[in-house]
Amino acid sequence: MNPDEWFTIEEIHPMTFAISEYGHWEKVHSYLVIGDEYAALIDSGIGIGNIKSVVDQLTSLPIKVLTTHVHWDHIGGHGQFNEIYVHELENDWLENGIPGLPIEVIRRDVGRDITKPLPVDFRIEAYEPYRGKPTAVLKDNQTINLGNRTLTFLHTPGHSPGHLCIYEEERGYLYTGDLIYKGTLFAFYPTTDPLLFIKSVEKISRIDHITRILPGHNELDLSKDFIIELNKACQELFNKGLARHGTGIHDYKDVKIYF
Q1: Mind listing the pLDDT tens digit for each residue in 170-203?
Q2: 42, 19 contact by CB (below 8 A)
Q3: Which residues of 143-157 are buried (b: 16+ CB within 10 A; e: fewer)?
Q4: Does residue 24 register a pLDDT over 70?
Q5: DSSP per residue over 220-250, as a string?
């Protein structure tokens, strides 16, 4: 199997692409956003296939890797690129790994429920999450100009301390990482914070101009209504005193919230 066959490329618009890993149970999406001078790769996937070979097919511009958060399924291909950006609160995680997360647990999650042939050079027993020093650290409301395309970083903690959503105001595109997607949203790990998660969802729900929600997992192209409904669910949990660890899975039709 050619390494780049692991990925599915979907055009969002002629200069924006989802690079997806549907053969893995996580159904992870990375996004390539192409400007006039630079291209941004929002996350780099699991690390099973060679995501750089896919990116190289789509653009020859210099690549800036923008990290929504430092979990293994979003930083797997970081080592294939030179410029890497991460929120300041997860700089240490990127360099040293998440404390208390054994490699055996990570490899178990990477290797389970695979439904597509793996690249011939991939070995689960050799899998290691990326570790390295970022090019620069990011803060809330900081922007980056790719050349006629500007991306704004929105600090949205809860799922992780330095989680970022990335917003392109001109087009109304919102890349939500693991804060918002259709499925089970996780904020029950020790490194998560249910109250901050709820505040982050509320923060995102206040953005007026959203034409497309582009999540880190599962279905692509959610609508603004999805955020509104999720925010209502979060406010209900808060008002009931359930926005804390140990209250379990809260089922709201298209989304489950796990505290």
Answers
A1: 999 999 999 999 999 999 999 999 999 999 999 9
A2: no
A3: ebebeebebbbbbbb
A4: yes
A5: S-B-HHHHHHHHHHHHHHHHTT--STTS-EE
Q: Which residue has the tokens 């159904």?
A: 27
Strands (E), 88-142: 136-138
Mean local confidence (pLDDT), 248-258:
93
What is the C-alpha R_g of the chain? 17
Region of 97 please: left (phi>0), alpha (psi -120 to 50) or beta: left
Q: Are strands 63-66 and 39-42 parallel, antiparallel or unpaired?
A: parallel
Query: Exposure of 179 by Cβ count < 10 A (0-12 exposed, 13-18 middle, 19+ buried)?
Result: buried
Residue 204: HSE in the Cβ half-sphere, 13 Å Cα cutoff: 43
In this structure, the dihedral spanned by the alpha carbons of residues 115, 4, 27 and 244, taken in order and rounded to 10 degrees, is: 130
**Residues 138, 141, 145, 150, CA torsion sign:** positive
Beta bridge partners of 217: 28
